[in-house]
Amino acid sequence: SYKYRPYTVLTPTVSLSLNLTGCSTEQTSMNRLGQTTITFTTQTGYNWPSTVQVTGATLVSWNAGTLVVEKATANTVTITVTCAKITYALTETLNNVTKTGTHPTTIEYGSTLTLKYTADANYELPDSVTVAGATSNWTKSTGTLVVSNPAGDVTITITAVRITYVITENLTNVTKTGTHPTVIAAGQTLVLNYAAATGYNLPDTVTVTGADSDWKPVTGILTITNPTGPVTITIAGVISTATVTYNLTHCTAARTNPATV
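Above: the chain's sequence. Below: its structure in token form.
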């Protein structure tokens, strides 16, 4: 009698099980014998990995989207290609501005970042900021910058603006000497000089609103500090007077005679 040995019919190709991230291929099988070249295409915003994984066959070579395999040992060969998203550097140049929250140093292709900032003391955030390499939207009131659609390395530049207040001087029979700016910056100290007009003296006191002040009537120096809003300075000269001394012999001065002139 004849005995039949069981046997397995080997197909010329085996199927592929593909685990792909950021790329694709139209190939669904490989040769069981000999080499097979499989071509992949990356999706926009992805880079090729340096290596790939092949299970159930021998990896001959991998070069930027081109895979060569051979000697399939299983009916299904598993190929894993994990492409990485393109990442760009993110650089922030801040002048009198402080970061709040998380601020990464890179941004991925196709991603959106929301960044927060606050101005340093005596400064306010600017009306606009400069962002190169991406689309951006800036909201001054909340210090929020949204960065999206990066096309390369991204640079953010934010320069805060020094807070300033208007100075108004109301002078009567008093003149300015030296430099008198029309604004004062928050946190700034100003030293102003004044002189009385002819026939007048500087007053013992002056009126300053919107800031702290120190007045020296002898020298005419007014020091302004800690402004909190618009500053108004009011100085009125006092008319000069002289004491009249009467040196009389055998007579007296009338009571209506002035004591000063």
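The mean pLDDT is 92.
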